[in-house]
Every structure is written in C-alpha cells, then in structure tokens.
Amino acid sequence: xxxxxxxxxxxxxxxxxxxxxxxxxxxxxxxxxxxxxxxxxxxxxxxxxxxxxxxxxxxxxxxxxxxxxxxxxxxxxxxxxxxxxxxxxxxxxxxxxxxxxxxxxxxxxxxxxxxxx
Amino acid sequence: xxxxxxxxxxxxxxxxxxxxxxxxxxxxxxxxxxxxxxxxxxxxxxxxxxxxxxxxxxxxxxxxxxxxxxxxxxxxxxxxxxxxxxxxxxxxxxxxxxxxxxxxxxxxxxxx
Lengths: 117, 112
Prior knowledge:
- The complex is a heterodimer.
- Chain A has no helices and eleven strands.
- Chain A is mainly β.
- In chain A, the strands form two sheets. In chain A, strands 2, 4, 5, 6, 9, 10 and 11 form a seven-stranded mixed β-sheet that branches. In chain A, strands 1-3-8-7 form a four-stranded antiparallel β-sheet, with no helix packed on it.
- In chain A, strand 4 (31-37) and strand 5 form a beta hairpin.
- The mean pLDDT of chain A is 91.
- In chain B, the strands form three sheets. In chain B, strands 2, 5, 6, 10, 11 and 12 form a six-stranded mixed β-sheet that branches. Chain B has a four-stranded antiparallel β-sheet with strand order 3-9-8-7, with no helix packed on it.
- Chains A and B meet through strand 4, strand 5 and strand 10 of A and strand 5, strand 6, strand 10 and strand 11 of B.
C-alpha cells in the first residue's frame, strides 16, 4: 500500500464546467475526509465518511458540491458549475477507528489542485 | 468552537539554529493536537501528535513539541535546523468531532 492516492493532481477547467476528483484511501482505513486549502491558508474541513456513510458536511460544502463513497472504499468529490472561487487544493485524508479513533492520525494524499479560469 | 492559532506566518532561521514554531489552541477540553508539514504542491505529512500520554512528544526528523495546558500551547521545536526543513508547518486540533481544525500555517525559511 502506497498511501492515499488522489487523481488528477492538477485540473484546469473553465468556469461553469463540472469537475470530479477521486480519492483512494489506505485500504484498511474506514474513515475518509475531504478538505479544501486555499493559498496561504490551512486546510478547511469539507466532509467525512465512515465506511460508505457521509456523517458530516461543512457549511462550506454548497449545494454545487457532492461527495460519495459508494462501497466504502474510494471516494469522489464533484463540483458542478464551477466558479473562480472554487480554485484551491482539494485534499483527501483517511484514518482508522481501530485503537480509539480520535487520537489516530489522518494520512493525507498529495491533493488535487483545481484552477478555474 | 475549537480554534488553533499559529503566531507568525513566516519564521526565518539560519542552518543549525533553533527552530521554534508557535501554536495555541482554544478549548475548554484539551484536544488531541498534531503538527503536519507540507512541502510545495504536496499533501500533509504528520510530524507528531499529542494524545495525552506524555506532554513532551517526539516526532520525525528531530522535531518535538511540548503540550502546556496552562498556556494552551503546543509549540514545535527542533534544536538544529537543516535546509531540508524549509516548508510550511501546520498545527491542528481534533476535539473528537471527527475532523481536524488547522491553523493558518507557518512557513519556515532556512538560510545557509
């Protein structure tokens, strides 16, 4: 296992187009998180899944954003009708609840950098 | 709500000098605390974590951090900076609500 994998690494899209990103977590991890990071800021939580259930969504996640994790393995994040303000790095992370949960660290992927032109 | 404050958006040190990156948290309940490092166009890599087992936490690459409840701080230190330490460092807290709250980050610059 080589860690959390995100595809694509970079995406340039025109305003108004839809984009979809994929995240493959570490195989034995049951929790998966999406974060958004804009320039000069720390990552901000968007949403998280435990297995296939989406348990929490940030108010940052407008109705143009949707995330799925259909079989409790990989996840997709779709942004519809992209806006220039959506330009950011989208980070995926995964963790395991084994051994307690709250103190176990999240492992991050390398991110997908989205540029909306 | 839990928040994390990192003082200093940029810290500059000379190679071989002490590194001190500051982090303060706000919470009535001591959270689980983490330091992550991010290299350009990369994801975040965990340096160390505090989980209440010990107040002085040792991490990778010679970094360590001390949890001080009275000061609500979790500052990151390294005795001797190396050029390869130049990166962005993020302090984060998990209060048990299943997500991390990050500070705004501190960029460490290391000069020869």
